[in-house]
Each structure stands twice: as structure tokens, then as C-alpha cells.
Specification:
35% of the residues lie in helices and 25% in strands. By secondary structure, it is an alpha/beta fold. It is globular.
């Protein structure tokens, strides 16, 4: 794909309507100045002085951030947060982003806001050093009433959008948005709207998902298919093709330093090598950038190979952004395409 084709393809992004459905969290960064370190009089322990706090949407929110960066016309956030300070920050951050609609985003007193709190030590002329993360999660099943509200939301949106992205970020099943009941509803919608693009990603497993597009990494493919994690590229392409044929929808597999595979239901596959590294990297958020860019490109009419190339370039841009969970704009992708 050359720049002219990218410009033609991405020119349609402003007309797209995309629903991002799943586990939204707050990414809260605590910037620590080590030169201001003190010692607690009471405990004798080191005191890390936070000189700046910044927050942004994470998990499903990272996918949403990437769609915003691409200039998607309308983005519907479907998920929940708690009635707490983190929830306030998350909603405020979402509302500040262009084209984001919060009509289907629920504030619930029954849940805590999923939060990744990331302390960063900042030293001059050095990459940020991330300390142990402090997470806040829900450890009980999502209340049935909240599940029903979210299912009603996605049913309402299914006929109005060009694409739906599912993001299952929680570690403990049934504690987030994408519960078994929710997946059952997605299966019904997939049958009702067979041409609707649905892209699913899960940090636990995509096994048992209804017939939709699947995006995963190599380790997740290995777990899902019960195959060794050290397979060669040809074997991985074959596995992805078999899975795409079974799903009757495309399957995408990210392979870290080996690039990315796309497989179509007819057995055709494409592979893109990663772009060369251009400095120090941080892989956080790369997978979410891939999910967003695959979905946007396919919804705009890209071929399998074009979608994989766009996503590959976006991932390369994101991993070179340190101390944050980055995004890639259409202009940045266009510039980097010149070296592909």
C-alpha cells in the first residue's frame, strides 16, 4: 500500500461510526522526581514525591484513543465505571475526546472503576522508569442488571454502526463487560447482521467466541489451539487460516518481532514483517493500536493485506512512544509508509 492508496482509504474514516464495547479503565500516571526523594520520619522508608499526575482512558479506552487519532467520525463507548473519583476522571477524559459519544456508557454504584495506576520515575535525558503498578479491579461477578443494560445498548447500536470492537480486558471471567451472557447476545447480533464488522480481542482467551473477526497474539493463538508456542511462521499461517475458516471471518495474529499475520475465511493469508526499530521502545498499547487500525481499515474497504500493513505501521509508531500508552494519527502513518 502506497501513500496515495492510504490517503484514499483513510479519507473515508470521518464517515465511519464505530462502537467500542468492553472494559474501559483509567490509566493514571504518577510522575516522580527522584531528586525530591525524602525519608519518612515515621517509618524510615523512602518517600517518592509525585510532581505531576496525568490520566487517560485505558484498555478499551486505548482502542478508543487510537480511533480518535485516526479521525473516526463517531465513536460510541459501551462500558461502565464506578461512582468514584477514578470514574469521574475516566468520564471526563472520554468526554474531552473528539467524536466520542457517552450515551451508552454506564456509571454504576455497584462497581469500582477499573484503574491502572502507573508510578513513573523521571530522570533527565533518560526514558521513564515504571515502578510496580497499583491496580484497582472488580473481583465479583458483574451484576445481572448491569449486564442487561449493556446488552440492550449493543443491541440498540448494532444496526447503526459500521463496526463493533469487543475488548475483554479483565483477568477474572464474568467480572467485566464481556460476560458469557454478553457473548451470547453478540452471537445473536452476528446472525442478525452477518455483514456487520465485529472485531474481538481478549487478554484471557477467544475460545468460544461467536463467529466474528478475531485478533490475538501468538501466545493466545497457541493457548486457543492447544499447540506449542514455538511454531514456525508457515505453521502459524496454517493455524490462523484454519481458525478463520472455522469462524468464517478474518483472523489476525500479532507475532512481536516476526510481524503480523492476517488470514481470510477462504484460506488466503498475508504476512507483514515489523518495521525496523528506530530507538528505545515500550510495547504497551501496541496491540490496541493494531485492533483499532485493523477495524478502521476494514470498515473503510481495505483488503486484508492493506489492513495488516496499516496496523503494522501504527504499532511501530506506538511502541516508540515512551512513558505513555500511545496512538498513531493518519498523518504519522502516511509518513512512515514511505519506508515500508
Amino acid at each position: 500500500m502506497n501513500q496515495a492508496r492510504w490517503q484514499e482509504l483513510s479519507a473515508g474514516y470521518g464517515k465511519l461510526r464505530v462502537a467500542v464495547v468492553g472494559d474501559f479503565c483509567l490509566d493514571r500516571y504518577l510522575e516522580i522526581d527522584p531528586q525530591r526523594e525524602e525519608t519518612s520520619i515515621e517509618t524510615g522508608l523512602a518517600v517518592h514525591n509525585v510532581v505531576n499526575v496525568r490520566s487517560q482512558p485505558g484498555a478499551a479506552g486505548t482502542i478508543l484513543n487510537n480511533l480518535v487519532a485516526l479521525g473516526i467520525g463517531e465513536i460510541f463507548a459501551v462500558g461502565f465505571c464506578g461512582e468514584d473519583g477514578e470514574g469521574y476522571e475516566l468520564r471526563r477524559s472520554l468526554a474531552a475526546r473528539a467524536s466520542v459519544k457517552l450515551d451508552y456508557f454506564v456509571v454504576s454504584e455497584l462497581r469500582r472503576t477499573f484503574t491502572y495506576c502507573k508510578p513513573l520515575v523521571l530522570r533527565p535525558a533518560q526514558a521513564p522508569q515504571e515502578l510496580n503498578r497499583l491496580d484497582s479491579k472488580n473481583w465479583s461477578p458483574t451484576p445481572v442488571s448491569l449486564q442487561e443494560q449493556l446488552i440492550a445498548s449493543v443491541r440498540s447500536l448494532a444496526g447503526k454502526v459500521d463496526a463493533i470492537i469487543l475488548m475483554d480486558q479483565v483477568d477474572l471471567p464474568e467480572t467485566g463487560v464481556v460476560t458469557s451472557a454478553f457473548l451470547s447476545a453478540i452471537g445473536e447480533l452476528a446472525r442478525k447482521f452477518p455483514q456487520r464488522l465485529v472485531m474481538a480481542d481478549s487478554r484471557r482467551s477467544l475460545r468460544g467466541y461467536p463467529p466474528v473477526c478475531l485478533k490475538m497474539n501468538a501466545a493466545e493463538l497457541s493457548t486457543m489451539t492447544e499447540t506449542p508456542p514455538s511454531l514456525g511462521l508457515d505453521e502459524l499461517r496454517k493455524l490462523a487460516a484454519e481458525l478463520a475458516r472455522a469462524q468464517q471471518h478474518p483472523v489476525f495474529v500479532t507475532l512481536s518481532e516476526r510481524g503480523m499475520i492476517g488470514a481470510a475465511p477462504d484460506g488466503a493469508t498475508t504476512h507483514q514483517n515489523p518495521l525496523p526499530l528506530r530507538g528505545e521502545i515500550d510495547i504497551v498499547g501496541a496491540g490496541d493500536a493494531v485492533t483499532a487500525n485493523l477495524t478502521a481499515a476494514l470498515a473503510a474497504g481495505a483488503s486484508l493485506a492493506e489492513a495488516v500493513m496499516a496496523a503494522n505501521v501504527a504499532a511501530s509508531l506506538v511502541i516508540h512512544q515512551l512513558g505513555t500508552t500511545g496512538t498513531a494519527t493518519r498523518e504519522q502513518i502516511a509518513r512512515l509508509l514511505t519506508v515500508c
